[in-house]
Amino acid sequence: QLARSIAGFHYREHWVVGAPIHSHSPPFYPVILAVAGFLSGHRLDAYLFLNLAFVVTAFLLLFDAVRRLWSPGVALLMLVMLVANPGLVQLGGEIMSEAPYLALSAVAIWIPTRQSMDRKWMVAFGTAAILAALTRSVGITLLVAVFLLWVLERQWRALWIFSVAAGGLVGSWLLWTALAPHELHGGRTYMADVVAGSAEHGFLIEFWERVTTRLPAYLARIIPWELPLPVAPGTVADNVFWVVVLVGLGALGVASTWRRWKVFTLYLLAYGALLALWTWLVGRFLAPVTPLIVVVLLAGADVIRRRYSAGLGLAVGLGLAGVVFLTGFRANWERLQEFRSCDRSAPLQSPGCFDPDQRSLFAATSFVAESTPDSTKVVTAKEATFAYYSGRRVTRPHPVLSTDPAEFVNRVVESGADYIFLGRNAAIESGPYPETLQQACRSLELVESFPPSSHLFRLGSHVAPDTTSAACRALADFRSTLPPRLPE
Known about the structure:
Oligomer: single chain
Mean pLDDT: 89
Number of helices: 22
């Protein structure tokens, strides 16, 4: 959707009522998609192939760097662990910005491993880092790494030019995300994420609580899962074992990478610090640095081989690579078997292609596309997807949310929306959104239900006398199937 906007020489959310300027995703990946779409006739396969090429490029660059900084053997073990990683395999087959970010960050940290760093390579180094930050906002950690590296190397002229360029390009984008109007964007900016929860507890207390909960969670659960390591759900012993392995090899590996590959270490530490401070705990955030974690662990095994015991170090490296490869291969094979039942002639209805909640969303968008005029507007939490498949403009639920049913109805009317959609494909649909809808259910009419989890409503011409209407029953059933909310 943003690529379409870029092709029209603007950066507006044309699928949202009012077409606000976008403020969540940086613009470089949409630019890439816009160019790829123009050259390929907007073929989906072209977009997917492009992301696959990005992932492969990152692997090859990291392989070359590790081969020269350590040994071909360590580089080969790294590649064995990466090619079977389910998250990275999936990344190469999705239209998501992590793939180009992975490639650009790999370019940036690969360039300093060259024996010569003349002016053109320094320009390429800084440019790759800036483009990475304009692909995903987490790329500011790469900018920090470049800045610190040049401070350590006393590259003052390059540092000044880089700071001006990064501040002008990336800084202006981050400034816009901070200043974007909340009422139009519904809080969907990274700056809104940063301050989430801080108003109640204060910045320092909030950040401290994040660090003390995020680090153990990433170390004990998410990193073993993303590598992937064979961790059995509901057990403790294997988690403890892998935490010890990760911490021990990680400490040795970071010391090794600091001596051989400073920008790598600075980037990984900055990225880890940001994850520790970030509002949300999401495994997908690790994807761009999963290859770096693999390098650190293998570098730690190499330290053991070189300094302590050649046999033990070799056994640790081979064992780790073998375990990760087999675990990842099994997960990929199981996923492939699931997809074998996908009917690609009708993917939006096929159980093998999408899960039940997603298929019910697609059924709703098809209904709206076929049964409503082009001028229809829909309140939905899955706004871009709903608009893409229905061809209708949408309004986000965040600006109309209210604990007062009458106020909620008034806000929906003021937004110009004709329908209200509720499914189970966005986080807010498991939180306050369905609760608000149920409070206002007497003013809603159920237009259609799409099993198992999606419903389409519109404002009724009158208020129902009680909560036994079809809309109220549908909303009560929907909320009864939601998982219990954790205490605040």
